[in-house]
């Protein structure tokens, strides 16, 4: 069955939505990644981690869990 091939469905609703950001102070400890309910955070050990805005629900758990204050809540 064929369908429209331009424009991803729904993703336009998610783009640009508020989400926390991880700054270079990140030590790659993985605590935020392990505590994210959406598995929205990825990163290797000792590397700066990254939040996937598509998965993030902006719950704020990572912000409170980071021992290094490297995650800033969305404005
Ligand atoms: S705000 Fe919540 S959902 Fe988003 S990355 Fe942090 S812990 Fe995960
Ligand atoms: S909890 Fe903080 S220091 Fe640890 S991986 Fe996440 S952002 Fe980096």
Walkthrough of the structure:
With 75 residues, this protein is of the alpha+beta class. It has a single domain, classed as 2-Layer Sandwich (Alpha-Beta Plaits). It has three helices and four strands; from the N terminus they run αβαββαβ. A two-stranded antiparallel sheet has the order 1-4. A hairpin with a 7-residue loop joins strand 2 (41-42) and strand 3 (50-51). The longest helix is centred in the middle third of the chain and has 5 residues, at 31-35. The protein is globular and about 25 Å long. The N and C termini lie far apart (43 Å). The mean pLDDT is 88. The structure holds iron/sulfur cluster (SF4) (2 copies). One iron/sulfur cluster is lined by residues 19-20, 36-38, 40-41, 51, 56-62.
Q: What attributes does this structure have?
A:
single chain; 75 residues; Alpha-Beta Plaits; two-stranded antiparallel sheet; 3 helices; binds iron/sulfur cluster
Task: Write a brief structural summary.
The protein has three helices and four strands; from the N terminus they run αβαββαβ.
- What's the N-to-C terminus distance? 43 Å
| Radius of gyration based on Cα positions | 15 Å
CATH class: Alpha Beta
Largest sheet: 2 strands, antiparallel
Order of helices and strands: HEHEEHE
* Oligomeric assembly: single chain
Task: Give the helices and strands, then pairings.
Layout: H1 11-14, E1 21-22, H2 31-35, E2 41-42, E3 50-51, H3 61-65, E4 71-72
Antiparallel strand pairs: 1-4, 2-3
Bound molecules: iron/sulfur cluster (SF4) (2 copies).
One iron/sulfur cluster is lined by residues 19-20, 36-38, 40-41, 51, 56-62.
